[in-house]
Specification:
This protein is mainly beta. It is 0% helix and 29% strand. It has a domain of 44 residues. The protein contains no helices and five strands. The strands form two sheets. A three-stranded antiparallel β-sheet has the order 1-2-5, with no helix packed on it. It has a two-stranded antiparallel ribbon with strand order 3-4. Strand 3 and strand 4 form a beta hairpin. The relative contact order is 0.25.
Length: 92
Amino acid sequence: MGPAVPVTVSSAVTVNPKPQPTVSLTAPTTAPIAGVDSVFTASIAAPTGTGAVMANSSVRLGDGSTRQSRRVNRTNHRADTSVANSGTYVQT
């Protein structure tokens, strides 16, 4: 047997990013008025092709309040709110 010959082996693999849910938040069609109920609608969909289900969701209304939905696989989440003071609020 002769001397050992070094062999280099390499391989490449592409790792795809983790699928994310699709989320949208729709504000009322008319500007909310302080003290009057307004309806925001969130649409939440599990990532396609993963078999995942959405167990719950929440919407932060920007005024310190949060609305939660705990229904499995609920696509639309209605968030009713009445903000006491005028101003700018960011919903997430």
